[in-house]
């Protein structure tokens, strides 16, 4: 038996007036997703525990079958592990975004215009991060360059008890109420403030402005945590697994769980990614002896954060056609297989950030096709099935139950 999880980050949403009061999943043309839901098991699942923030870190841990209440230690450590950051147990890692802030004399009076600086390219970001390193690195602070706007700060033997805010939660808001708080937070705030003095005038940003793009004129530090310790996915479920994602967060979760992380050329973490390449990499992994592949596609989430209605619908359609369609065709030669389809959390266009609402899932098994209550894959069709998982980590056990039964 082969198993594939296809996770469309942030696909779930609320009804959108511009889409005729349909959600993007309802509005999108997605025959493959609808087929899985109508011929398999469909329902709703709560991926975010009540006492944890509704982030992709918490949600993807949950979907992979790990109780976030027990195992979650922060977002950035997961990304740091994917990036190869040499992190000791007593160190603290922080996500460092390159963001676009409005102009104002006082830093606290600025507004968060874009958490991704118009999805700055990795090449441009690398040049800006070199300047960040020159200005701020010392014996206990080190910066590590990641992908696009996503980077890492490591504080050796540093504190972790801060109140820090994800920048994608405060787009179009004044930053004054969301600046770092807690003991030693002045270290982080000082770097954020001082970064504006050399980033805004950097040639990379001057050229971006000339091209009509937003400048990455500040760093924003958040998502702190210490190194996690996850039990092996293989020991937990009895299947050899791999993860395919363009973002370090999901790669890091997979690596912490002892899974293989497979890179795909042209995978970007945004709308313009190599959808088919991810599907083909998953098929090749199954041929190479892996039993389980977790495919993560970031595009719908990014469109939700940017309030790009048409692009979010298009991202869902591309996932359906180029990822799921390629997988279904490529799996024809297998006698039996299972696919689980779901988002990690909603990223409603109207809010431009994550919520803790339950998300729709569909589980399809080739050898046991059946006509269920769901006729399509979307929030409301899945809700009508009456099937609800209150704890997200329980869904993986349902998906892999054949392994345990052997």
Q: Any overview of this molecule?
A:
With 406 residues, the protein is of the alpha/beta class. The protein folds into two domains: 2-72 and 229-405, Alkaline Phosphatase, subunit A (3-Layer(aba) Sandwich), CATH 3.40.720.10; 82-225, no CATH class. The chain has helices spanning 24-27, 31-38, 56-63, 68-71, 76-82, 122-136, 185-199, 203-210, 233-237, 248-256, 275-287, 299-305, 309-330, 379-384, 393-399, 401-405; strands at residues 2-8, 41-45, 92-101, 112-114, 141-147, 150-155, 218-225, 241-244, 260-262, 292-297, 337-342, 359-365, 388-389. It starts with a strand and ends with a helix.
Mean pLDDT: 96
Number of extended strands: 13
What is the CATH H-level superfamily of the largest domain? Alkaline Phosphatase, subunit A
User: Structural class of the helix and strand makeup?
Assistant: alpha/beta
**How do the SSEs run, as a string of H and E?**
EHHEHHHEEHEEHHEHEHEHEHHEEHEHH
- CATH level-3 fold name of the largest domain: Alkaline Phosphatase, subunit A
Number of helices: 16
Q: Give the domain tally.
A: 2
How are the strands of the biggest sheet laid out side by side?
A: 9-8-10-1-11-12-2-13
CATH architecture of the largest domain: 3-Layer(aba) Sandwich
The percent range for strand residues is: 15-25%
Q: Distance between termini?
A: 11 Å
By CATH reckoning, the class of the largest domain would read Alpha Beta
The radius of gyration is: 21 Å
- Biggest β-sheet: count, sense, barrel? 8 strands, mixed
Unreliable spans are: none
Bin the helical content: 25-40%
